[in-house]
Amino acid sequence: MILYQNELPFREEFQTIAGVDEAGRGPLAGPVVIAAVILDPAKKISGLNDSKKLSEQKREELFFQIQKNARTYALKIISPVEIDKLNILAATMLGMERAVNSLAIKPDLSMIDGNRIPEKLLGKAESFVKGDGRFASIAAASILAKVTRDRIMRDYHKKYPEYNFQKNKGYPTQEHLEALRNFGTTPIHRKSYKPVYELTLNLDE
Questions:
Q1: pTM to 2 decimals?
Q2: CA-to-CA distance for 92 and 23, rounded, in angstroms?
Q3: How far apart are the C-alpha atoms of 36 and 72, rounded to whole Å?
Q4: Rounded distance, CA 112 to CA 21, Å?
């Protein structure tokens, strides 16, 4: 429960805290998913951690527990089209704004994973590098975001099985890059990402 203990200094000042995190900034395909969650301090969830440090089974279990026990949460999906239009940083900041601003309960403080704070976020906010491994609220948001995005990519795998999205989740693995060379891009590929547009240019030559 160390991640809950780390939040205690903030809870002395702020009654309602939202954790905010994203999943999917690095992949070549698929959306970026942003989660904001307000945990109930009276209903502590055992096992919260940075989603990347948990097994898929454990993430799924915690996903259910977070949904069941959180005071409120919001998930926002930013499409590859929006990512290409805005760039991934701006798209992620927009998703964080949408997630926090749509929470049913307005937080007194938003604790954001990373080193940037969205400009149009309502209320007070602080950013924390590697916050998903330090604070329970951000860890919960990281789990909600990653499980949601992984499910989306598994669904895309059914439509585009040759890219094996169920395994690589859109990240630039050797297998994924080889599929891009052999089959080109899909509507869910991020055309502004260098490996995608470089391979597209090579195919057009």
A1: 0.95
A2: 9
A3: 9
A4: 6
